[in-house]
Q: What sequence folds into this?
């Protein structure tokens, strides 16, 4: 399953658009919304599902490594932006939102950058849902949040 | 700080076995805990997230799989199409090692969506209800019930008014006694906090019965 990457337009390329297989048209680069095929180009056609058909949870934490930050000057485009924004830990969802990237593009590129040693990717263990101590800490933390009048329960 | 250890026992470095070892993270990431805010279109999901999130709610594109609901489908093979929808979310840093994420699930005003991509691993869900449009939340209630995810129903008191009593809402939604039904105000931080606490207490009671 393509898991969210829009399939190429079944009706073929937009007759008014540039031929993706042809030479670059003369003149300035086109501007405007990215075409639907763009996520495929960025990920070289890969989709963000592992062998079990699962994808990285949206809350998966990603952090730049020192190697990644050292390599920033050599990284381009999305890869550069992802490593740069991960100076502080970010979830996959936050990276996608902040960089305006498709969630699945971030999943694929984060895995690439992890394999290259430029990010660490921390997939949350699903067991956290059943961890009473974690739940109690969240409950205590939430209770400490004052309401709009500064009153805590 | 540098470490090659996972951020906590509940976080494992990603990637398939045998992949190159993770390098040195510059910062230890917090353990993410996820809650889902569900409900029909325009019911106050983003307002709810925004009232308590420490960041302005962010929007990202999420993929959802739409299973065509067809009683006339004799093959019983769901026809699936993947749709990209906007998903709003926010977060609350509990402490440097623990962060609560609130994800608003998109598209549940229509039947037949699968939100597994968002809901997988969530500690619980809050189904927001507008009593003027109760129908809009049936899909969300069904979804959580079928997946045995702890959830509560929160009636959003638009303009401080609720058109039906909680018992009427409970009856109309046909939820079991184990599902809390509360009234809240999506614009009020303390009210949102208390509604989230109802869900978390429910989740805790399941794993650590008193």
A:
């Amino acid at each position: 399953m393509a898991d969210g990457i829009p399939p190429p337009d079944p009706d073929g390329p937009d007759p008014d658009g540039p031929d993706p297989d042809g030479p670059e048209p003369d003149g300035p680069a086109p501007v405007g919304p990215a075409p639907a095929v763009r996520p495929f180009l960025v990920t070289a056609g890969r989709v963000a599902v592992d062998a079990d058909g699962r994808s990285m949870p949206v809350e998966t934490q990603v952090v730049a490594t020192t190697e990644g930050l050292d390599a920033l000057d050599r990284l381009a485009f999305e890869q550069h932006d992802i490593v740069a924004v991960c100076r502080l830990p970010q979830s996959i969802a936050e990276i996608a939102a902040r960089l305006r990237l498709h969630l699945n593009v971030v999943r694929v590129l984060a895995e690439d950058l992890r394999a290259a040693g430029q990010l660490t990717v921390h997939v949350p263990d699903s067991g956290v849902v059943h961890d009473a101590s974690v739940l109690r800490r969240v409950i205590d933390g939430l209770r400490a949040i004052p309401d709009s009048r500064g009153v805590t329960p | 700080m540098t470490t090659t250890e996972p951020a906590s026992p509940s976080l494992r470095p990603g990637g398939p076995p045998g992949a190159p070892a993770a390098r040195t993270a510059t910062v230890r990431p917090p353990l993410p805990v996820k809650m889902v805010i569900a409900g029909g279109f325009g019911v106050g999901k983003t307002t709810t997230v925004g009232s308590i999130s420490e960041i302005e709610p962010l929007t990202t594109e999420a993929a959802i799989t739409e299973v065509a609901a067809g009683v006339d489908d004799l093959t019983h093979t769901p026809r699936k199409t993947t749709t990209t929808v906007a998903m709003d979310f926010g977060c609350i840093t509990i402490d440097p090692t623990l962060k609560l994420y609130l994800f608003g699930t998109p598209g549940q005003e229509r039947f037949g969506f699968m939100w597994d991509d968002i809901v997988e691993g969530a500690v619980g869900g809050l189904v927001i209800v507008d009593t003027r449009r109760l129908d809009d939340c049936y899909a969300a209630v069904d979804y959580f019930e079928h997946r045995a995810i702890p959830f509560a129903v929160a009636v959003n008191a638009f303009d401080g008014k609720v058109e039906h009593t909680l018992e009427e809402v409970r009856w109309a939604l046909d939820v079991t006694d184990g599902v809390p039904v509360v009234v809240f105000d999506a614009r009020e931080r303390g009210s949102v906090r208390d509604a989230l606490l109802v869900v978390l207490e429910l989740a805790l009671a399941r794993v650590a019965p008193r």
User: Anything to note?
Assistant: The helical segments of chain B are 45-52, 116-119, 138-146, 166-173, 189-207. Residues 189-207 of chain B form the longest helix (19 residues). Chain B has a mean pLDDT of 80. Chain B touches chain A through 68 residues (CB under 8 Å).
